[in-house]
Write a structure and sequence with these properties.
With 304 residues, the chain is an alpha+beta fold. 27% of the residues lie in helices and 26% in strands. The strands form four sheets. Strands 3, 4, 5, 6, 10, 11, 12 and 13 form an eight-stranded mixed β-sheet that branches. Strands 7-9-8 form a three-stranded mixed β-sheet, with no helix packed on it. A three-stranded antiparallel β-sheet has the order 14-15-16, with helices on one face. A hairpin with an 8-residue loop joins strand 3 and strand 4. It is globular and about 60 Å long.
Length: 304
């Protein structure tokens, strides 16, 4: 996972609960407000909320990883497997199963090439960081155990970008199972951030026979945790997260199974959420439209 917009770094500022703000944000917000900061273009990214039904029949758990505290950005916070989109996934022929690309493009409000690249990014990153692969030899099958040495060699080659995702699928005779994914949300890193991502959130169920593992060099811990428990940890200041992470966690709480969440994906609002920073009477106001719990006010010379 590259430096993604969900996390915490060293030297951080934390608001009440587990919400994290980089210490440089106030100055960058002021610079954006006075016109001395030019926003960088966001890079495309994808992340997957991987769900697993509880053995006791209770609410499903979601797979999360904690970024290493040593990371230059977003260290120490909880996030989902994910990362940047590989441009090669936009124009290569991909073994595909599930809704056609035109259907995905209409759902996501993009062209077909962009939809393919983002969905490929979601599936590839889940394999790279969690060892879980949403692909099968046919449109109704899913691969089983992916922990062998040969799988690990391919995973490392994907991480190093020595192997494209299309080549990986072709080599193994696999189809990407796009029907196992549901588009859930879209968040764009604030304009005042030096590293920006246009991140698509997907939901998926852990395939039978597969298991997660911490395959990421950027994470020091992985957990399966129910969304309500993770949200309680955030509210108590025990689990640190960025607004997109805790927001999507809360949105998963109503569902009693992974299948219910996947069925609900079709009705989720994919309008991009972008933070706004304004100057009001000498006070900086940081807000995420539609998500009032994250609104923060910054006094001149102060921090959130």
């Amino acid at each position: 996972m590259p430096n993604d917009p969900h996390g915490q770094s060293t030297g951080e500022s934390t608001a009440p609960g587990g919400q994290w703000y980089p210490p440089e944000w106030p100055d960058r917000i002021r610079a954006l407000a006075d016109g001395s900061l030019t926003p960088v273009a966001p890079k495309r990214a994808a992340t997957v909320m991987l769900l697993r039904d509880g053995a006791d029949g209770g609410a499903p758990a979601v797979h999360m990883l904690r970024r290493r505290a040593s990371m230059a950005f977003a260290g120490g916070a909880y996030a989902y497997p994910g990362g940047g989109v590989d441009p090669r996934d936009e124009d290569h022929r991909i073994g595909w199963a599930g809704p056609p690309l035109a259907t995905w493009a209409a759902r996501m409000g993009t062209d077909s090439a962009t939809a393919q690249a983002i969905i490929c990014g979601a599936v590839r990153e889940t394999f790279e960081e969690a060892g879980v692969l949403l692909a099968g030899e046919g449109p109704d099958t899913v691969v089983g155990d992916t922990t062998g040495d040969d799988w690990e060699a391919d995973r490392r080659a994907l991480v190093a970008r020595e192997l494209s995702f299309a080549e990986f699928l072709d080599r193994r005779g696999l189809l990407l199972r796009s029907d196992l994914l549901g588009a859930w949300a879209r968040w764009i890193t604030p304009e005042f951030e030096p590293r920006r991502y246009d991140t698509w959130f997907f939901v998926a169920a852990l395939p039978a026979g597969q298991r997660t593992r911490n395959a990421s060099t950027e994470a020091d811990r992985t957990v399966w945790i129910r969304p309500s428990e993770a949200a309680a940890g955030y509210d108590g200041g025990e689990l640190l997260m960025m607004p997109p992470t805790i927001s999507t966690l809360r949105s998963l709480e109503p569902y009693g199974s992974a299948a219910e969440a996947l069925a609900a994906a079709a009705g989720q609002d994919l309008a991009p959420v972008l933070a706004r920073a304004t100057l009001e009477d000498g006070e900086l106001v940081l807000s995420w439209p539609g998500h009032d719990e994250f609104t923060k006010r910054v006094r001149q010379g102060g921090t959130p």
